[in-house]
Design a protein that fits this description.
alpha/beta, eight-stranded mixed sheet, 10 helices, about 20% strand
Length: about 290
């Protein structure tokens, strides 16, 4: 009996070791799901826009480790402020086009939206450290285009929320918007496959829970109550770690992970525009 138990224990240990190695080797593929951006996509999207919508550019940004990433930069005629936007862990820039256009034409916000390394037509392969470098490069680029910290709000969706929090902890934006954002990668791994200790094998941390309490700036949260990717409880618990007097948490009743704007309609964009206005007013229009 004892010999049988030892054999079972040894097999379980080997299985766990194999699982550990597999997670380490496949981790970035498990987290990031990029899609290529076909050449000419940007030109096709802007070709039918009416005159006066704004100016639109596809820009190339060089990161501190020498990669070139792609961004879309839109500027209305009279911008009320600026959004630096980090999307989630899948797709590419084109999947965010409708909201990108509405921020610019409807809310009169200048917007820089980037594809992380390995996404769209950006060079490289995504990693946690890499997407943080991409975020810093995007911020620095935006400052060269006339934006100022005191008139710039960072927006992060899903995994982009973790990227936005990390950048906000290093820079001094006027405010931060977090949508469908998780507590930490550790908690996401536990939620995805609760019976296996995947989180013990993962190098990527995306530890928003450890960073958000240090931020002393206005934060606007959106999270769908029916989110099947990032549980509503994770967004609520993350907000609970922020400075209470600086946050506003909006539960979007019935919304899933990717349909916050569709569920709220124009109210979503109005909330974002009003939040940007309030952040800029608090910092001063020329605030650095």
């Amino acid at each position: 009996m004892r010999r049988k138990m030892l054999i079972i224990s040894a097999r379980l240990l080997i299985l766990l070791l194999l699982l550990f190695v597999a997670v380490r080797l496949l981790e970035n593929r498990m987290i990031f799901h990029p899609m290529a951006l076909p050449p000419g996509t940007f030109e096709e999207l802007i070709s039918g826009l009416p005159t006066g919508t704004g100016t639109f550019e596809e820009v190339s940004i060089t990161t501190e480790d020498g990669l070139t990433i792609t961004g879309w930069f839109g500027m209305p005629k009279e911008p009320r402020g600026c959004l630096l936007w980090f999307h989630g862990n899948a797709g590419n820039l084109s999947h965010r086009w409708p909201d990108f256009l509405e921020f610019i034409s409807g809310q009169q916000l200048a917007v820089l939206l980037i594809d992380y390394r390995g996404f769209g037509s950006s060079q490289g392969s995504p990693t946690e450290a890499g997407v943080y470098r991409d975020a810093r490069a995007a911020w620095d680029y935006l400052m060269t285009r006339g934006a100022r910290p005191g008139s710039t709000v960072i927006l992060g969706r899903s995994l982009g929320g973790a990227v936005a929090i990390e950048l906000a902890a290093e820079k001094e934006p006027a405010g931060l918007i977090l949508e469908s954002t998780f507590f930490s990668m550790k908690e996401m791994a536990k939620n995805t496959i609760p019976i296996l200790p995947l989180h013990l094998a993962m190098k990527s941390r995306f530890a928003s829970d450890e960073r958000i309490g240090d931020l002393d700036l206005p934060i606007l949260f959106f999270h769908g109550t029916a989110d099947r990717v990032v549980p509503f409880s994770q967004g609520r618990d993350l907000a609970g770690l922020a400075k209470k007097h600086r946050i506003r948490f909006i539960p979007v009743k019935g919304a899933d992970h990717n349909d916050l704007a569709a569920t709220l309609g124009s109210a979503y964009f109005d909330e974002v525009g009003s939040f940007v206005d309030s952040c800029i007013a608090a910092r001063g229009y020329d605030g650095d």
